């Protein structure tokens, strides 16, 4: 009986910790971002509005976009690029998951995957995928922020709920460069393969 009570307590504590996190929404439209470096049509590096003192970092290379969140160290700022293999672009609203006390534990952002038509090689709306990308937020003591999980926004009836669960339960203890980011929930054929480049 004591074992069952202990297990139930752990479940309740786990549920309580997830519920305790709040969502804060921040617009990262590119016109709100500050350009750090740019080669039009080829490369862009920007800093964007964040949550509290947690900044947002944006990269675009060859029509593929990457975001990282928090106090990213120079090694990751220079060497990390996490995106998808097909052409893609991210949304403009970041959902920050914030714990009691104000610490950001994760960020959720929607990606649009521009899947090509196998016959023509051209991207068409009918093949477009949507993936919620959940990222670990970098803290000042380690400087490491990275993608911690994915949710296919088209294949799951309530993808935001799944993404928040991953943000609250997976992202905070995710080890960048060690753990492998995975899809959670159902994955359909429009959720194309990610491309994760991180410093060794």
Provide an overview of this structure.
The protein has helices at residues 2-20, 74-79, 159-169; strands at residues 22-27, 34-39, 43-51, 54-61, 64-69, 81-84, 88-90, 93-98, 104-113, 129-136, 147-152, 182-183, 194-197. The protein has 200 residues and is an alpha+beta fold. The strands form 3 sheets. Strands 1, 7, 8, 9, 10, 11 and 12 form a 7-stranded mixed β-sheet that branches. The chain is globular and about 50 Å long.
Question: What does this entry show, briefly?
Answer:
With 200 residues, this protein is an alpha+beta fold. It contains 3 helices and 13 strands; from the N terminus they run αβββββαββββββαββ.
Structural class: alpha+beta
Helix content: 10-25%
In DSSP terms (H or I, runs of 4 or more residues), the helix count works out at: 3
Overall body shape? globular
Radius of gyration (CA) equals 18 Å
Low-confidence stretches: 1-18
Beta-strand content bin = 35-45%
Helix/strand order: HEEEEEHEEEEEEHEE
How far is the first residue's CA from the last residue's CA? Answer: 47 Å
* Average pLDDT over all residues: 90
The beta-strand count equals 13
- What's the story with the biggest beta sheet? 7 strands, mixed
């Amino acid at each position: 009986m004591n074992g069952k009570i202990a297990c139930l307590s752990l479940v309740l504590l786990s549920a309580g910790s997830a519920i305790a996190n709040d969502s804060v929404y921040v617009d990262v439209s590119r016109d709100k971002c500050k350009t750090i470096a740019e080669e039009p049509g080829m490369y862009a590096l920007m800093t964007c509005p964040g949550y509290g003192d947690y900044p947002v970092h944006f990269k675009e290379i060859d029509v593929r976009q990457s975001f990282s969140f928090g106090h990213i160290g120079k090694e990751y700022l220079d060497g990390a690029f996490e995106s998808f293999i097909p052409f893609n672009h991210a949304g403009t609203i970041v959902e920050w998951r914030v714990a009691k006390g104000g610490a950001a534990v994760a960020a959720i952002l929607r990606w649009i995957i521009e899947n090509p038509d196998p016959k023509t090689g051209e991207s068409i709306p009918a093949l477009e995928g949507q993936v919620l990308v959940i990222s670990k937020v970098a803290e000042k003591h380690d400087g490491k922020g990275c993608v911690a999980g994915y949710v296919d926004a088209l294949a799951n009836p309530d993808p935001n709920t799944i993404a928040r669960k991953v943000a609250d339960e997976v992202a905070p203890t995710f080890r960048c460069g060690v753990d492998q980011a995975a899809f959670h929930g159902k994955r359909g054929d429009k959720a194309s393969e990610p491309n994760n480049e991180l410093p060794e």
